[in-house]
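To assess whether ligand presence alters the predicted conformation, the chain was also submitted together with adenosine monophosphate. Input:
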Amino acid sequence: MSDIVKIVRTVHDLRKITAEWRDRGHTIGLVPTMGALHAGHISLVKQAKKKTDRAVVSIFVNPTQFAPNEDLSRYPRDEAGDLKKLLDADTDLVWAPNVAEMYPEGFSTSVRAGSTAKDLEGAFRPHHFDGVTTVCAKLFNQVTPNVAFFGEKDFQQFTVLRQMVRDLDIPVKLIGVPTKRDADGLALSSRNAYLSEAERKIAPALYAVISALAAEVAAGADIPSAVTAAKRKLASAGFAKVDYLEVRDAETLDPAATASGRPLRVLAACWLGKTRLIDNVAV
Ligand code: AMP
């Protein structure tokens, strides 16, 4: 094994390599990321290695999915650390374009995310999913993966992208990978780096509360009152503000007033100090 991972920074160079792989009949797996990699990202890379012949990881902090008031400028970046982790995970290629390569002078076309993007994250981050669908459409065209791997951690993002691929007939299969958590239940996230020591101690309450809510709903609890009680628990654990805590249809993300027999998902976003955490679990 080489001691450096192959890193490519232009679409031109990327296409040469992927064309050669396809000529040889290799299948390509893509793991899109914004870097600051942790074990959650690496679990996606492992799936790509397992299910396809060539694992490509993209690292691109996508400006178009951040609103002007969001954390783009302070988003954690650690390319050297990322490359080391990706080498250890036996990644075949790292696709790390800069902003000018991804959005050259004159760039102005975008993919508008569909109905599954309209609320939850979409209500609080209005243009976020259009940024995600646009950059992922570009990544799919650049890398031409057979399969792309996304974390269930960002469950709505995965749903929105599945809808995009279906609606636009993009020839890629999407696979969702279960959320990796710390031992205390906190979902791994690059944004956990923002938490103070005290906040980090409170943070696992989010997973505990949504897991308990999911169990209550599965046992037949009245959804609106169980949700109200769960919001109260989050507030008393120390979460300053709950953007949303909802029980939704796991496929359409439509509101679920009752446990209808269809698969349901509990999804939440809330604030600990200046850090916004999201998480979700299956009912
Ligand atoms: P990000 O770099 O945060 O954009 O995430 C890149 C990919 O990694 C997305 O598909 C995320 O859903 C996924 N991901 C992030 N955190 C986790 C986690 N804790 N477990 C599994 N996948 C994750």
